[in-house]
């Protein structure tokens, strides 16, 4: 939702300062551009997602938005965008520093 309204969405690491931010076209202050959709600034990675691609992702990830339990781990891949997202069970993070 946020990305379709010209906003951004950030995932922050529990282990430190690293973060990944999905930004949409037109977000002020974004380092990622249509020419360079992946941009790093120190430990912060920005990934530009066009409205068309956000719509595609929403369709592909729809099964995660149901009340039914999804079998994890689950991997989603968009090779044309060089993007892969893994959804892992909470148990993987029970001891994140090990």
From TrEMBL:
What GO cellular component is one of the record's annotations?
cytosol
- Return the Pfam families for the record: SUFU_C
- What domain of life is recorded for the organism? Eukaryota
* InterPro entries assigned: SUFU_C, SUFU_C_sf, Suppressor_of_fused, Suppressor_of_fused_euk
Q: Record keywords: Zinc included?
A: no
BP-aspect Gene Ontology terms: negative regulation of smoothened signaling pathway; negative regulation of transcription by RNA polymerase II; signal transduction
The protein's predominant localisation is cytoplasm
Print the keywords alphabetically. Acetylation, Cytoplasm, Developmental protein, Isopeptide bond, Nucleus, Phosphoprotein, Ubl conjugation
- Where, per UniProt, does this protein localize? Cytoplasm; Nucleus
Where in the numbering of this chain does the Suppressor of fused C-terminal domain appear?
1-87
**Family membership:** Belongs to the SUFU family.
PANTHER family, sorted: SUPPRESSOR OF FUSED, SUPPRESSOR OF FUSED HOMOLOG
Q: What is this protein called?
A: Suppressor of fused homolog
């Amino acid at each position: 939702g946020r990305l379709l309204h010209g906003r951004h969405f950030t995932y922050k690491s529990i282990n430190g300062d690293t973060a990944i931010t999905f930004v949409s076209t037109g977000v002020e202050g974004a380092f990622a551009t249509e020419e360079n959709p992946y941009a790093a600034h120190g430990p912060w990675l920005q990934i530009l997602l066009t409205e068309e691609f956000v719509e595609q992702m929403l369709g592909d990830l729809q099964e995660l938005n149901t009340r039914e339990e999804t079998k994890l781990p689950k991997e989603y891949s968009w090779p044309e965008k060089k993007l892969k997202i893994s959804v892992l069970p909470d148990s993987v993070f029970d001891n994140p520093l090990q």
